[in-house]
């Protein structure tokens, strides 16, 4: 099971909070829509790789979106926060309500510095 993937020299892991910039075309106009949430799953390999992003919308409603990695409408992916998790799939967050649904322990700076050294 995949726990991470690389997109434009940026490593993204399960548990990270990301912003996915996706180009949406409505008639003749195009715009960029940003979807920010927690990466709860990464599936498959190579060209078929997909990742699932979950955010909590207004009214404590969870919204999930599955993005194919090679989708041409994805313009940019930003990592807002690195998360430290012990599972490859975070489906248990679906049962949580409120702030607990998006709470994942943040990677410490010490652990990141230790990896680079």
Task: Based on the model shown, name its key terms.
single chain; about 120 residues; mainly beta; SH3 type barrels; 5-stranded antiparallel β-sheet; two-stranded antiparallel sheet
Write a brief structural summary.
Helix content is 7%, strand content 49%. By secondary structure, it is mainly β.
Layout of secondary structure:
Layout: E1 4-7, E2 10-13, E3 17-26, E4 29-43, E5 50-57, E6 61-68, E7 74-81, H1 109-116
Antiparallel strand pairs: 1-2, 3-4, 3-7, 4-5, 5-6
Mean pLDDT: 87
Overall 3D form: globular
Could you name the CATH class?
Mainly Beta
Report the end-to-end length measured between terminal Cα atoms.
27 Å
Order of helices and strands: EEEEEEEH
Reported by name, the CATH topology is: SH3 type barrels
Contiguous runs where pLDDT drops below 50 for at least 5 residues: none
Count of DSSP strands:
7
Largest sheet: 5 strands, antiparallel
Radius of gyration: 15 Å
The CATH architecture comes to: Roll
Spatial ordering of strands, largest sheet? 6-5-4-3-7
> What is the strand content?
over 45%
Overall structural class, as computed from helix and strand content, comes to mainly beta
Helix % is under 10%
Number of helices: 1
Query: What's the structural domain tally?
Result: 1
Structure notes:
The chain is 7% helix and 49% strand. It is mainly beta. The strands form 2 sheets. It has a 5-stranded antiparallel β-sheet with strand order 6-5-4-3-7, with no helix packed on it. The protein has a two-stranded antiparallel sheet with strand order 1-2. The longest helix is centred in the last third of the chain and has 8 residues, at 109-116.
């Amino acid at each position: 099971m995949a726990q991470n993937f690389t997109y434009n020299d940026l490593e993204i892991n399960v548990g990270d909070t990301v912003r996915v910039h996706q180009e949406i075309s409505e008639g003749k106009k195009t715009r960029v829509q940003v979807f920010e949430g927690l990466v709860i799953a990464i599936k498959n390999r190579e060209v078929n790789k997909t990742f699932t992003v979950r955010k909590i919308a207004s009214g404590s409603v969870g919204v999930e979106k599955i993005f194919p990695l090679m989708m041409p409408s994805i313009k940019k992916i930003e990592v807002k926060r690195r998360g430290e998790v012990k599972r490859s799939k975070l489906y248990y967050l679906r049962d949580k309500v409120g702030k607990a649904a998006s709470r994942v322990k943040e990677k410490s700076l010490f652990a990141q510095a230790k990896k680079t050294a």
